[in-house]
Amino acid sequence: MTISTSPPYDSRQVANHLITIADQQNRPMSIMRLLKLAYMSHGWNLAVMDEPLVNDYVQAWRYGPVIPSIYYAFRPHGVYGLKPINIVKEETIDDGTNDILESVFGLYKDLSDGQLSQLTHIEGGPWHRVYRPGELGIVIPNELIQKHFKDKLDRSEAENTYS
């Protein structure tokens, strides 16, 4: 039985959904791409819907923002060519959330993994503001992520661009 809910979702469910979108468009999914797209989806959901997408926290790791539960669930399956994994409670992603995930995927699908990483490392961005080399477990507050993506949304609407 699947349960239809609204955010926040189990982050692994969101990751599975992003992988499914990539598969439908014949686009490969790497662990780096998955981590960046999940983070960006969470940020855009905070900005647009004013609520978190996932029920997990985002941490500032050496190579950018990471939702640890996604990393630890998917990384054992390889670095490239990721496929959805089985999780205990499978939820149906609601239509509004699906629209956000598809929009985020469409917005960033032509960028390389490195370019996605650069976007998450932007000076003054959430990761940049909290990351401290060698320090582990630094949580990036949702309020900081939300402000960053709301600012992006405001600039995007003014410039008609969303990258």
Spatial shape: globular
Query: How helical, in percent, are the residues?
Result: 40-55%
Query: How many helices?
Result: 7
Element order, helices and strands?
A: EHHEEHEHHHEH
Structural class: mainly alpha
The largest pleated sheet is described as: 3 strands, antiparallel
Cα(first) to Cα(last) distance is 38 Å
- Rg (CA only): 15 Å
Low-confidence stretches: none
Total domain count: 1
Number of strands: 5
Q: What fraction of residues sit in β-strands?
A: 5-15%
What strand order characterises the main sheet? 3-2-5
Mean pLDDT equals: 92
Task: Walk me through what this model shows.
It is a single chain. The chain is mainly alpha-helical and 163 residues long. It has one domain. It is built from 7 helices and 5 strands; from the N terminus they run E-H-H-E-E-H-E-H-H-H-E-H. The strands form 2 sheets. The chain has a 3-stranded antiparallel beta sheet with strand order 3-2-5. Strands 1-4 form a two-stranded parallel ribbon. Strand 2 and strand 3 form a beta hairpin. Helix 1 crosses helix 4. The longest helix has 19 residues. The termini are far apart. The model has no long low-confidence stretch (mean pLDDT 92).
Keywords:
163 residues, two-stranded parallel ribbon, 7 helices, globular
List the helices and strands and how they pair.
Blueprint: E1 3-4, H1 11-24, H2 31-49, E2 58-61, E3 64-66, H3 68-74, E4 91-92, H4 95-108, H5 113-120, H6 126-130, E5 139-140, H7 142-159
Parallel strand pairs: 1-4
Antiparallel strand pairs: 2-3, 2-5
Helix pairs in contact: 1-2, 1-4, 2-4, 2-5, 2-7
